[in-house]
Write a structure and sequence with these properties.
372 residues, alpha/beta, seven-stranded parallel beta sheet, 14 strands, 15% strand
């Protein structure tokens, strides 16, 4: 059995594909798996590191601007698109896959469209509540469309009825225990723990809004708080140091550059604050956490807003749009939630009810059924 995955660009596309591919490799010893991506994005590192064969095509996305630089880029993209179809056909012809799987990103477009023309079974997975342009186009042509959340259906015209599979969540998160995690972090039984982060790089608007809140919390000690400024937020660590933080700590508050034990921190948390990427949302649901989501407005199709609203509309989370984000609005929402334990528990239950913890198995099952 031969399976070809096409994905790339961001970790949000690549990591779920790797999770599914790894599961198939573990459970089907005869499976031969290959990935197609680009040479200049993170898939060129992550896929080989995971031990999978990797081929590249020369493709880029379109820029949504009419600036001279963007126009020049888009002209080159048109030529790359034509070239990449030929490159995809050669790779597919050489590998002879039984099924071709797309996990989003513009690299999926030419690979899946070529596979469809060649009569090979195809399927795609959409991570977000508002699908990307590539998957919107492919949904009309491929044999199966898999979705993380039901909400994405209304934004798609599909050849066949889409199937909600959820999004794979890292195993260590599913195994994490709240009491054990709180003990590891020395969180007292009588205090809430707030966990906040803006992704691995950090989010400056969130860091700015959080600064005064963290200073206040450090002095009042009302609740515990762990905050990540991100790898691009080093200057915030200096600001905290000037306010008396030692090694990022003061009172019940800890500020880090990066959270490298997310499974422990999230398991211990009573409230999670952060962006609304598909992976983060799935982790929040899987662990049954109340959350305040601040969607990034800088992503394609404003998809993080739609991801957040999938929870908000089910009373499973809260949203503050970045345009409304201030220390005051964020502090008020934190205070409101931590002052009402019953409401916090209700939101946790609703978030947990949305979780699909066997997403990896569901997706693999669909891929294997097409391959056979």
């Amino acid at each position: 059995m031969k399976i070809l995955f096409a994905t790339g660009g961001t970790a949000g596309h690549i990591n779920p594909a790797l999770a599914v591919a790894s599961y198939i490799r573990e459970t089907n010893k005869d499976a031969q798996i290959m990935f197609i991506g680009t040479a200049d994005h993170m898939e060129s590192r992550l896929v080989p590191e995971a031990g999978f064969d990797f081929k590249t095509i020369d493709i880029s996305g379109f820029k949504r601007s009419f600036s001279p630089k963007a126009i020049s880029h888009n002209v080159k993209t048109v030529f790359r698109l034509m070239k990449s179809s030929g490159e995809s056909k050669k790779i597919i012809s050489d590998f002879k896959p039984d099924v071709v799987v797309g996990f989003g990103g513009y690299v999926s477009g030419p690979v899946l469209q070529t596979a469809v023309k060649m009569g090979i079974p195809t399927c795609i997975h959409e991570q977000n509540a508002y699908p990307g342009i590539t998957n919107k186009t492919l949904a009309k042509e491929v044999d199966r469309v898999m979705l993380t959340v039901e909400d994405a259906k209304k934004h798609l015209e599909s050849k066949n009825e889409p199937i909600v599979t959820g999004l794979p969540v890292r195993g260590e998160l599913l195994k994490a225990d709240r009491d054990v995690a709180r003990a590891q972090l020395n969180i007292p039984d009588d205090k809430y723990l707030v966990l906040s982060f803006g992704g691995s790089l950090g989010a400056e608007p969130l860091n700015n809004a959080m600064f005064d809140i963290l200073i206040d919390s450090a002095h009042t000690g009302r609740y515990c708080h762990i905050h990540s400024v991100g790898t691009n937020g080093g200057e915030f660590l200096d600001k905290f140091a000037k306010k008396g933080f030692v090694d990022g700590k003061m009172g019940t508050v800890e500020v880090r550059k990066y959270i490298d034990n997310m499974d422990v921190c999230m398991a211990a948390a009573d409230l999670v604050i952060g962006r609304a990427g598909a992976s983060s949302i799935s982790e929040i649901e899987a662990m049954g956490k109340a959350s305040i989501l601040i969607p990034s407005p800088y992503v394609a199709e404003n998809h993080q807003y739609h991801n957040a609203m999938a929870l908000v509309n089910r009373n499973a989370g809260f949203i503050i749009e970045e345009k409304d984000l201030t220390s005051h609005t964020l502090y008020e929402k934190i205070d409101e939630l931590l002052s009402d334990g019953d409401r916090l528990k209700e939101v946790e239950r609703n978030a947990k009810a949305m979780a699909i913890t066997d997403a990896r198995e569901r997706i693999a099952s669909i891929i294997l059924s097409l391959a056979k």
